[in-house]
Amino acid sequence: MPSAVAAARTIxxxxxxVMASRMNAQAKLNIVVExxxxxxxxxVCSIYLLREGMLELFATRGLAQEAVHVTRMAIxxxxxxxxxxxxxxxxxxxxxxxxxxxxxxxTGEEKFHSFAGVPIVxxxxxxxxxxxxxxxxxxxxxxxxxALQTVxxxxxxxxxxxxxxxxDEGVGLNPAHTGTELLRGLALxxxxxxxxxxxxxxxxxxxxxxxxxxxxxxxxxxxxFDKMRDQIERMAAQAEFGVGGExxxxxxxxxxxxxxxxxSRRINEAIDSGxxxxxxxxxxxxxxxxxxxxxxxPLLADRMxxxxxxxxxxxxxxxxxxxxxxxxxxxxxxxxIARNLGPAELLEYDRRRLKGVILEEGSLTAHxxxxxxxxxVPVLGRVRGLRGMVREGDQLLLDADAGxxxxxxxxxxxxxxxxxxxxxxxRQAIYAALREVEPRTKxxxxxxxxxxxxxxxxxxxxxxxxADGIGLYRTEFQFLVSATLPARERQTRLYRxxxxxxxxxxxxxxxxxxxxxxxxxxxxxxxxxxxENPAMGWRALRVALEREGLLKVQARALLEASAGNTLNVMxxxxxxxxxxxGAKAVFEHQLDFLRKQKRMLPEAIRYGAMLExxxxxxxxxxxxxxxxxxxxxxxxxxxxxxxxxxxxxxLAERYDWLSPSLLRFLRRVLNGxxxxxxxxTVCGEMGGRRLEALAxxxxxxxxxxxxxxxxxxxxELVRQVDLGELGAAMQGWLASPPLNLRVTLAEWAAxxxxxxx
Length: 757
Prior knowledge:
CATH architecture of the largest domain: Alpha-Beta Barrel
Radius of gyration: 32 Å
Distance between the termini: 69 Å
Number of strands: 22
Number of domains: 4
Shape: elongated
Mean pLDDT: 81
Strand content: 15-25%
CATH superfamily of the largest domain: Phosphoenolpyruvate-binding domains
Strand order of the largest sheet: 7-14-13-9-10-11-12-8
Helix content: 40-55%
CATH topology of the largest domain: TIM Barrel
Low-confidence stretches: 166-177, 239-247
């Protein structure tokens, strides 16, 4: 037997001639089985194609010709059905010994013992099976199997061009690919959405498999490898600024595979057999996928997923198809599928048609999640193996409230989902009606309900929700979606536009909070070292005070933009009073400069701090006289208080916001600010959840800043509450905590008809 390369090349040369001829498709297939049979010295060679949901014998050498277009079997039925159903190769010395063997007397195959078959794959879906048989019992050599797999790729092109199968009927990577699938993940942004599956980085469709010039194809692969390796190196270099953890491991794996000589050698061998660069990459990747399905070790399976991702990258590079689905535009309501996304990538999509996002990775703290929340787009994260379960164009029902997504739903499921959607819209209409209504409790207490923002478009939600103002404007969003450090003029223009849009309602600008999970590729540490614990590392005000030029530019921009208005500026992650003093001094210095330049100045400046680091609670008596307002950032505060990284899936939902320890801490913060004219606001995810908001009201919080979509539900909640009764109940619970405060509070609310869902 010659080498796999030589055998495949001999076959491909002859197949190329067959494909170029003017014969009809059936005549071509009849010749193809003869060509393969002769080249592999095989007594039987047969081609089965998927038609009308059944695998039909289309052409054969060695079996009874009367069986052609007569022998048909279902997916999963017999050896041929098993190959198509599982998209896997079979190599058997004795076919009858296999548990899935099924005897078909019309074929006359009883005299043949050995059997080998490979799937014919088109666009990741099995559209047929190519198989060979011999009289004597023997396992086929690896070179024969590889030659068959290479030929199967070329056949897929012939079959597609001749329209012999309906590609929509193809069998996918998962045996249950055509049925309804339920995906589970971590709810990153809650909400409902339905639409067609769209891959952020679509797979490349290979149209030409047989190479005209082998050396030219090899050079294309070499150039693609060089380009891809450069991309990986740049990604790794950019990640030096405070990334660490899982992302860094992925990059190291990427680098390992990108420089793997075995991988590139196998691609070269596939080119030598006569395949185009694209077909060679796909040919090697098909073998990898088959191996993936045999791996039980989750770590190895993850590494194989990394290789799959890298192969897709190489395929896009060699074909020149580097654009994302955003560049093509969304043509219908869509659910976006991606491994991960950056905030700038998400913003490229038409938000009118983007109904949801499903990520293989993702964490609660990722800034893309904050952007998605601001856009009102539900996000489901940590869903593994998406490409194996979802096809481009599949209908998806995304229920991020429950942390699930339904693939290819039944009519009944769609109807039930639409009913939920309708009820959701009804509730939204109720919330919209509260836009002009003041949020007052039953006992007449006015609660200030503000909203968080970070994008220019978010400001429009002020009028739509009837919020009292913007309690947290995340200025770092402008930095995150920019390829370079935003110039002062650009910053000034944005801040002025935000103030003008807000009118007479206050806007609290938080100075840039970068570092940790918010990485800027153009701003790194001088030492270039990564951080083991970036959330607790060099970030927020620490970075701003070190890179004083960064804070000076932002201070100047905020002061100039606020000319004639009141500037509310807040410093993030303040652990000690002297750090607040340092940041305030930068603003005062810029104010003096503008005053000397005879420039218009803000009417007043109100300085505030964010309490995210528990240490600040111990020195509030020192800091409070210097503050106009204090904002409690419950997201970071919770992870620091519990020493629990919320990006860690094992800890993401372990520590409850309704923990007595957290509520006691917040109450102590409120008590620490008594006697000072300081507005205390909670701005974070906690305040946007109705049951958690109820607890905050119970301990004395009267100002909340939350996501725009939460404003209506919170207004509705406030109007149902008697603060006196609620406060007394909470005082008792915190003095003697129940086993589960969440359950206790929910039962208390339900007994009084307060809806906290």
